[in-house]
Write a structure and sequence with these properties.
Order of helices and strands: HEEHH
Distance between the termini: 104 Å
Largest sheet: 2 strands, antiparallel
Radius of gyration: 29 Å
Low-confidence stretches: 110-118
Mean pLDDT: 77
Length: 118
Amino acid sequence: MRAICTNTSLAVGLIILFATTSVGCNPSPSTETADDPSPTVTTVATANEYCPIMGGKVSEDGGTVEWNDETIGFCCDGCDEKWVALSDEDKAEKLAAAKAKAETDSSHGDHQGDHDHS
């Protein structure tokens, strides 16, 4: 009788061991479906709205780099490489100009008309 209990206990133990290791290996179910055509979009906040190299609006395709604890964005592919080649002094100057352009645009908005800015 004791041999039957030992064999049963061993079998139950092996089943539990197998079940717990199998569950741990299964990937979690995906929330995305193959029929979902919309890509996952992640936006990154950049320190600048305008590219410090070409002056265009920062875009996702332009890429980003980290510089002086800021994420610097670019308008197109290749601008990040040009940025990396600049001296820190040139980077600071170009980034300041890009930030100033954004401030000028936001203070003027999209209004038009004849008026004096003095």
